[in-house]
Amino acid sequence: MDSFGAVDRYYELSLQHAFWRYLVLGTYVSYEIADFVDDPQIDQRVKEGFTAEYYFNPYFSITAATSTRISSRPTKQATSWRTR
Q: What is the rounded distance in angstroms from the CA atom of residue 22 to the CA atom of residue 62?
């Protein structure tokens, strides 16, 4: 792959719920697409995950997260040719 960089777009849908005053659990699904510059390759990734946050006090908390890749597929863009 001969590319100087990529345009990366990231979308995430998350849901969090505070079960107690100091414990917040959540889940999320994300979609990421990377379109490489001067290269027909496009990478697409879909992930799901869980998060947990515990607040000891207003100044100190601990956070844990896990994620699983649901799918990942590199694809090629269709090349179009113009004729006159």
A: 10
Pairing of strands 6-18, 60-76: unpaired
- Give the domain ranges of the chain: 6-73
* Residues 30-67 pLDDT 10s: 999 888 777 777 888 899 999 999 999 989 999 999 99
- Residue 3, number of CB atoms within 10 A of its CB: 13
Secondary structure letter of residue 56 according to DSSP: E
What's the predicted TM-score (pTM) here? 0.67
Distance CA 20, CA 35 (A): 42
- Residues 6 or more apart whose Cβ sits within 8 Å of residue 72: 43, 44, 45, 46
